[in-house]
Amino acid sequence: MMDFQPHEPCPCGSGDLHNDCHGPILSAPPHKQLQVAQARYASGWNQNAERYKAQGLYHQLALNLVSVGNIKKFLI
Asked: How many CB atoms lie within 10 A of CB 37?
């Protein structure tokens, strides 16, 4: 494994610092890495979802999907 400094850009290309991106995943014990990665992904998705909702982007997405037609409800 390559050694990255916490305050260097993450090599994944996200633009985030390594410490704020993949650093916590890679520094977790091997048996915990998947759990840490899933928690970070869920947190990031939730933050983005809140921003999209505040900007009204979900409403526009729904209108675009309905305009295509034959959309079935798949979430209960």
From this structure: 15
